[in-house]
Amino acid sequence: MSEDTTVAVADRVDEVEAPLRRVFREYGLPRVHWFVVAVAMNLVARLSSLLPPLVLGTAIDAVFNGSSDYSLPLVPKAWLPAEPKAQFWFSVALIVGAFVVTAACTWAQGIASDVFAHRSLHAVRVDTFRKMQELDMAFFDEQQTGEAMSILNQDATNLERFLDQALKNGFRLVIMVLAIGALLISMNWQLALVTLVGVPLMALFTIWFSRKVAPRYDAVRSSVGDLNTQLENSIGGMQLVKTSNTEEFETERVERASWNFYTTNMDVLKLAFLYRPGMRLLAGLSFVATFVVGGLWLFSGPPLFFSGDLTVGEFVVFIFLTQRFIDPLAQISNIIDWFENARASGKRIFGLMDTPVRIEDAPDAIELDPVDGAVEYDDVTFGYDEEPIIEDVSFDAAAGDTVAFVGPTGAGKSTAVKLLMRLYDVDEGAIRVDGHDVRDVTVGSLRESIGYVSQETYLFDGTVAENIRYGEFDATREEIIEAAKAAEAHEFIEELADGYDTQVGERGARLSGGQRQRISIARTVLQDPDILILDEATSAVDTETEVLIQRSLDRLAADRTTFVIAHRLSTVTDADTILVLEEGRVVERGTHQELLEEDGLYANLWAVQAGEIDDLPDEFVDRARGDV
Ligand SMILES: Nc1ncnc2c1ncn2[C@@H]1O[C@H](COP(=O)(O)OP(=O)(O)OP(=O)(O)O)[C@@H](O)[C@H]1O
């Protein structure tokens, strides 16, 4: 494979810059109206929540103590009542009104910020999945399924929580700190300084914490991926686990991954345990300092270097507002927590999104339609990594021909046909269909013209009919039945409990290997491809089923270019050309008869299958040992 091989997400993560800004820019901006509503509602809710203590302070001084005028900031005096009793009721009305406005706006901002966060993340999740599907097979060879799932699940959820909570609490924090700070300063700037002295300390403490915690969050995210991978592996291989009696071994492996998750988490929590109470302590100290200085001021005039007056009402407002001020400040710790966690998750999501797609349509790619099915391999060389797996393979298959690949295990037979489908791109040489290099046609039209029946049949959880129709979603029930008949599958399907509507279970677990195989052949019949690839399609079935499958495959292959990969040579004796591969090279080619006459590797393989083991040359037996 060429130099820019796809790398796992983990390797890309460190190259992602400012992931949260990117989430906002790419996914938040299109729904920014919800964001604006949320911020505006938050602003009104928070400001109106400041009104009750302010009114209370004014009422204490003006209505009860009579020590000052009844006045409120920003409200013209002429609008306020002059008589104490009216002032009292006016205060009550203002306080009730403020509570109602706060409640209504908090409700509205909650909805707006939830919609903003969840819609943005819905788009992130779908885009991540779409991108994941565009990535070439090399990505999935390297990536663990559990890791990919954890990106789509947990990492997206982390971002969601951050967008939602940060919006609700972050803005609340900013608004409260700015508004209360301004109010306190306007009431008594000297006492306000006492209250605010903790703020720079808290800011420094927060900077220290976020620098320390960021790498630890990266470790947590990656350990979540490892844990998921382990779980996916252990649960996916449940049958092997049970038959190998390795439940304890698997539990220990999960335990190790879970313990690693625990320890990385604890590394974060150890810091958080220090940081959160530390912030509360600093906030508490601000409160105590305000209370002590304000209290002394009321008892015996301005203490130390302070000067001027402080009324009881002002003192009450200070105490109330300081309390309000401190709470959101102490909340910074949570926001930082969400922020760091979301940043680590954002890096993983964009790490995946930034993975280059190497197998995609060329800018001037053409549609391959209609297809005759002439296929040409022209000096093809390919390797999954540095080492070539296919070397200088050349052959021509005329439209309608059947070409068989045979050879020892690991010779590169499956790899050769995967290149035709462009699951990987050749490193050197070219593969042409009807004279077009497969890299010059759209991937969609290429794959649409090729039907692939592989040795590993995969069925989706759903009904038999849904599985046959997969990829040809417009097919009618009649067409599905016709396809099943051609695949020799109709009779056993009819005998299933619900016929074509029988649920096959996850990966088709409720069906036998031969039944799964025939359903996947029916799927290919329905697809009606111009080129057919049968990759050991009759493996893992009994002889009787093999005959059925072989009959259906022969019918399917009759009038289209077909590539057959087979270990059982009896299935390819009629092929127009048999290519014998060994270590990635074509070592022999010809018809069955020609190859037997050549008396080389093919003839020896044939002899093995015919049971003539004693007549084999020693050289062949030695080579077979090497392969095994
Ligand atoms: N995705 C992959 N990544 C890296 N190496 C791979 C990958 N798939 C196959 N290989 C390697 O490429 C070589 C050829 O594999 P391939 O599956 O093409 O052989 P094959 O001839 O079809 O074998 P078999 O008959 O056993 O199915 C093997 O050595 C295998 O280990």
From TrEMBL:
List residues traversing the bilayer.
32-51, 88-112, 169-185, 191-209, 279-298
* Location of the ABC transmembrane type-1 domain: 36-336
Q: Which SMART domains match?
A: AAA
GO MF annotation terms = ATP binding
Cellular location(s): Membrane
Q: Which InterPro entries match?
A: AAA+_ATPase, ABC1_TM_dom, ABC1_TM_sf, ABC_transporter-like_ATP-bd, ABC_transporter-like_CS, P-loop_NTPase, Type_1_exporter
Q: Which GO terms describe its cellular component?
A: membrane
- What keywords are annotated for this sequence in UniProt? ATP-binding, Membrane, Nucleotide-binding, Transmembrane, Transmembrane helix, Transport
Q: ABC transporter domain spans which residues?
A: 375-608
Give the bilayer topology: Multi-pass membrane protein
Record protein name field: ABC transporter ATP-binding protein
